[in-house]
Design brief:
transmembrane helix, 4% strand, Transmembrane protein 218, two-stranded antiparallel ribbon, membrane, transmembrane
């Protein structure tokens, strides 16, 4: 497995991707552009997809019976990150819906009869 420093290449790619996303998001919000929300959604979907991909090949059943099974605790961290992403996406979408979609439209007064 290739490592950069003490972290894997996949985690390094995700860190760089989220830093670029943060920069694009801040600039997009400042310019009042929808590209910020699109980039945030795409990177979230990409991260969730990468978290769902298994990291190691599945061993055959015969080999598992011969070798003592080691417990893999990485699934706990993946599940925690996935849960955090889903909850933050739901909270963000609900705040966006409340702040922008339910905003009342005030009628302009009629000045001529």
């Amino acid at each position: 497995m290739a490592t950069v420093g003490s972290i894997g290449i996949g985690l390094l790619i995700l860190i760089i991707l989220w830093i670029i996303t943060l920069i694009v998001f801040v600039v997009g919000i400042k310019l009042q552009s929808n590209i910020a929300w699109i980039v945030l959604g795409l990177v979230s979907v990409f991260t969730i997809t990468l978290l769902c991909i298994p990291t190691e090949k599945q061993q055959s059943q015969d080999l598992i019976e011969l070798v003592s099974v080691e417990k893999d605790y990485i699934i706990i961290y993946k599940t925690a990150i996935l849960t955090f992403l889903v909850v933050s996406a739901l909270v963000g979408l609900s705040i966006f819906f409340i702040a922008h979609c339910i905003e009342p439209i005030r009628p302009k007064p009629i000045k001529t009869f």
